[in-house]
Amino acid sequence: MTIIQFLTRLIRGKPQTNSLILQLPVEIIVKILALLPFHSQLLVYQTCRPLRVITYEYFLTGKGNVTDLARATREDKLLYLTPLARSLPDRWVCVNCCKLHQIDKWDTPLHDTFCYLFCQDGMDTTEGYRVSRVGWPHYYPNHRHVELTLKYTRMEDIKRRHQKYLRRLLTPHHGPIMGYFDVAKGISGRISVYPKVVNERYLLLSIFTYVEGETKVSRQSIKFLEICSHISDQEICNIAYGWEKNINEAFETALSANNTQKFFSCGLCGTDYSIQASPERFVICVWQDFGPEGTIHDVDWRAMVCENGLVHHEPGSVRKLYGPHVHSGETY
């Protein structure tokens, strides 16, 4: 029995189709669908009426709305919703409640995220997920900011309001270093952050500049610094992974290089960084690759947020992918 014959028994009238897969016997189509993961079956359910009938009849019978299926895991829902959101410029996938939310044009990494969320906590910090704190609290790119930036860059025909929103998402930030990244008295600190999309990947360049004032700049004058989720003063993730290298070792190398820019790399995520140090000025540049469009379960994102996904990249490859950058806002 072909799918046409199958549908004829279910509905009156014979649907017309030129799709080759729909010419296959129903039994073969069912076997093909049975090989797909559950979230892919949900996507097939959305394609056309013939496949919708087959998918529902053989896999989803009695379950009602497919987006609310009891057997759908959190990851299933995210993997199902993410492809749907790719073509919807006004929607983003909420990690917390696994729903599509309306965008807010003022919701960017530069603003207080809590002002723009429709659920209590739509950020990516639920269940152990968090972004790298590079730039935080000055610049905080959550997963939705990364996905919206990549989506708008990919989409050619977007409305003017979406173009304006994309410009906001890609706007560089310059500001004083404060909060957790505070410096000792007598030292001036400034941060500049430059988001960029290259080869459909979200890249971020963060530049920390420390300049002498009443006192000379030293490693001790920087109270806290985090290069990525694996390299920081506290080394929380380093202990878990048994990776002992920290930022202090890199500073020792840079200080002995007589104000020459020295390059380093994280071996656990897509992060390259450099340090140029002298008693008068420290300049720290951090290049990060957050990956292409996807969910929080993708390995690039999990590695960046200090989860169990590890990305081993060629040292310097992220910096090379980002390309040359002319310093502007980070100078005094």
Could you describe the 3D structure shown?
The chain is an alpha+beta fold and 332 residues long. Among the domains are: 3-68, no CATH class; 173-322, no CATH class. Helix content is 30%, strand content 16%. InterPro entries: F-box-like_dom_sf.
Q: Layout of helices and strands, plus pairs?
A:
Layout: H1 3-10, H2 26-34, H3 38-45, H4 49-60, H5 74-85, E1 91-93, E2 100-102, H6 143-154, H7 160-169, E3 173-176, E4 187-198, E5 201-212, H8 236-241, H9 247-255, E6 262-265, E7 271-277, E8 281-289, H10 299-304, H11 317-322
Antiparallel strand pairs: 1-2, 3-4, 4-5, 5-8, 6-7, 7-8
In short:
The chain has helices at residues 3-10, 26-34, 38-45, 49-60, 74-85, 143-154, 160-169, 236-241, 247-255, 299-304, 317-322; strands spanning 91-93, 100-102, 173-176, 187-198, 201-212, 262-265, 271-277, 281-289. It has 332 residues and is an alpha+beta fold. Strand 1 (91-93) and strand 2 (100-102) form a beta hairpin.
N-to-C span? 76 Å
Low-confidence stretches: 10-15, 62-68, 120-133, 235-244
Strand order of the largest sheet: 3-4-5-8-7-6
> What is the gyration radius calculated from CA atoms?
24 Å
Could you say which overall geometry the principal axes of the C-alpha atoms support? elongated
The residue-averaged pLDDT reads 76
How many β-strand runs? 8
In which range does the helix fraction lie? Answer: 25-40%
Assembly type of the chains comes to single chain
Order of helices and strands: HHHHHEEHHEEEHHEEEHH
The major β-sheet equals: 6 strands, antiparallel
Structural class, please?
alpha+beta
- Quickly count the helices: 11
**What proportion of the residues form beta strands (DSSP E)?**
15-25%
